[in-house]
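Below sits my pick:
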Amino acid sequence: MVEKSKLRAMSRDLQSDPDDYMHSFRKNLFMYIERKDITLAEVAEAADISVSTLKTFLYGDSSDCHLSNAIKLARVFNVSVDELVGCGTISPETRESLQIIRQLPESFTSFVRWTTRYHYNMLTSHKVSKKAIEIMNPEFENGNLVATNKFDLVDISDLNDDIRPKAFMGIRIPCDNYAPNYYKGEILILANDRLARPSENIFITIGGNLFIVKRSEELIDRTKKIIYHGIRDNRKLVDDDACMVLGYVVKTIQDPCEGDR
């Protein structure tokens, strides 16, 4: 069988079709067995199923698959049953997170697990009667906001009912370089429940740097592209795989002891 590192890389190409999961199941199986270093016999032996059963999944008109067989095959390819079958029982965001973590070296996955536990413990240790979110404290270096692992909690229980449920994190502005839009010490509350409107400010991250931008669409080489414009310097950034949207600014507050802006 192929090395686990290659299997991890291949998992990024797994398809999902919740409306016809047998179709995506076949496509995903074909993706693996079409490799020259993976044979039907090897897969069947590793999964402890017969070659004829495997061929039925690949070439037959089977409309279903026994759960036990799906589990065995998923174990062979080192993926979840949902990913192999493509049945959509987990969200696209969760699938993406699994695929990203799977590509990381073990030392990095250990760090991810530690970070996840840290944030979980921070949030769950807050009083149950209050609504709190984590606030990132970035640094301003060489003209850019730089993401850090410095977080604290802010109670947002007093925010309006139309804002509080969708607020998921905040970012504290560390300088006055974003005036008159934002000032040092202000906390920008972010939501990501929908696509930001052109009039709304958005936080995106590229290579560890944070940018506060507005969103627009432009034709580039006859193709419609999403373009982000920095609110501080009007820097133009094209949406691509290196760009991740954190959310749009739904509210600006000061440190709780100083009151709302």
In short: The radius of gyration is 23 Å. The mean pLDDT is 87. Residues 4-103 form a domain with the 434 Repressor (Amino-terminal Domain) fold (CATH 1.10.260.40).
